[in-house]
């Protein structure tokens, strides 16, 4: 019997008509065509609470998990592939997604310390990252703005948690380009998720 791959998309963009949403739709459509079981966590639509507060700070250290966090962790546990889609805001990810990681990627779930060494617990899962920017590549790259975000997201977060980062794809200058250029980018999206 043909194996069905399970893919979780985590989308962090507030607007329905955004290019990020178009990427999300493209990933979903293409992977469903390839017979993946695709689930989407649309963080703004879910009204996800991204603020790690005092009352659930201890959950980071895995004493008791709030219900909304347990639910998100169950989605991640279910998935074989994670696809993260987000715009660049102030040279990083939107606070919504950062807060999702702060609250959901808890110690004991996403990683743990054994004999003083950290160990990623989301092994055997693949990750693909799509990140859009307003600034052009030739401004961002010489200023190390791309490499710094790759380091933080791919090395500092995903690889740290044991995920195998397949691609971190940047789409540059997206609000300044025309419809045709956007279509070319969306075709590239298909080629990238084909690896999954
Ligand atoms: C709060 C905010 C901060 C932003 N900061 C940056 C930035 O640091 N670098 C950049 O290239 N673009 C920045 N932008 C532009 C967005 O990255 C760009 O509009 C987005 O990637 C376009 O995709 P969308 O159509 O899906 O929103 C920022 C936009 C907002 C709203």
Automatic annotation (TrEMBL):
InterPro entries: Flavodoxin_fold, Flavoprotein-like_sf, NAD(P)H_dehydrogenase_qn
A Pfam family matched in the record: Flavodoxin_2
Nucleotide-binding keyword on record: no
UniProt entry keywords in alphabetical sequence: Oxidoreductase
Cellular component aspect of the GO annotation: cytosol
GO function term, MF aspect, one: NAD(P)H dehydrogenase (quinone) activity
All residue ranges annotated as the Flavodoxin-like fold domain in the record: 5-184
Keyword match Metal-binding: no
Classification via Gene3D superfamilies: 3.40.50.360
Family: Belongs to the NAD(P)H dehydrogenase (quinone) family.
Protein name from the UniProt record: NAD(P)H-dependent oxidoreductase
Taxonomic source organism: Metabacillus litoralis
